[in-house]
Amino acid sequence: MRKTFFRFSAIVAIGLATALASAADSYPAAPITIVSGFAPGGPTDAAARLAAKLLEDKFKQTVIVDTKAGANGLISIQALKRAKADGYTLLAVTAGMATITPVVKKAPGYEPTKDFTPIAIIGEFPYVLVSRNSFPADDPAGLIDYAKKNPGKVTFGSAGIGSSNHLAGEWFAKLAGVSLTHVPYKGDSAGVTDLVAGRVDVYFMTPSVAMPQVQAGKMKVLGVASAAPTPLAPGVKNLISKAVPGFEMGSWIGLVGPAGLPRDIVERINVTINESMRDPQYHNVLSTLGQDPVSVTPEQFASRIRKELKTWEGVANDAKIVVD
């Protein structure tokens, strides 16, 4: 009886493995949906549509972008959690959704390391540190020196409590050993207005928002938070990490699947995204979206999520940042 049971179990296991391999080999056999948690026209939506185009071109299969905006991306995450782990429902996820909201929000409603299967990063960008034109420093070292001589008097703006540029400012201050005063806004638009008007001192901004203002002479750039100069901030050579070792800050938009997505499907999508990003045509498209191409394996993507979660958890705890 026992031998019969083990024989039956082995047959079932072999049959299941064969079925899964067959499903991966034939993938995709139906349209794919990429869920986007933010309104059309924004960077997340644009990145989702670029990924859809890349997959369509490679797989010769329809790829639909389904916008489920609201609750800072939570509605789209819930849609992913309800989906089958078969590769036909994916999510365009931001660094904020994956690594910041889970550590600053009291009840985020998801755990990225358990609910997501990381696949590939579509694009990334570093933050640039900008200031009002009349600010008495022209680079990160000058800012730190001025802040040390005027503790608590230097203000930094952000898109709101718990936003990525809020945590960027707190982390910068922590690593630099200075005291900065946070000024939260309801979105970056109001913060840009106040920085141009001289009502706030410094601000971590995306290159796509900051550089047109810098080039128009409305604010000045102190440095870029990347390991090397970026074409997204042309002419900016000051690297914040030279004044603050270990500080590199930016954001990314990636593609994830539901938990338990088969490895063969993950690799197939990852290779497609990475190979397509080598095409100069898509480099140019990504550049117009204010992002740089990046090629990582699924394991590297998962490791990056874990590392950033740990970093932001420490920053949020030190600064006592909690969002209801």
Write the topology of this structure.
Layout: H1 2-26, E1 32-36, H2 43-59, E2 63-67, H3 74-82, E3 89-94, H4 95-104, H5 112-115, E4 116-126, E5 128-131, H6 140-149, E6 155-158, H7 164-176, E7 181-184, H8 188-197, E8 202-205, H9 207-215, E9 220-224, H10 240-243, E10 250-258, H11 263-276, H12 280-288, H13 298-319
Parallel strand pairs: 1-2, 1-3, 6-7, 6-8
Antiparallel strand pairs: 3-10, 4-10, 5-8, 5-9
Explain the overall architecture.
The structure is a single chain. Helix content is 48%, strand content 18%. With 324 residues, the protein is α/β, with parallel strands linked by helices. It folds into two domains: 31-125 and 251-319, Bordetella uptake gene, domain 1 (D-Maltodextrin-Binding Protein, domain 2, 3-Layer(aba) Sandwich), CATH 3.40.190.150; 128-243, D-Maltodextrin-Binding Protein, domain 2, CATH 3.40.190.10. Helix 7 (164-176) crosses helix 13.
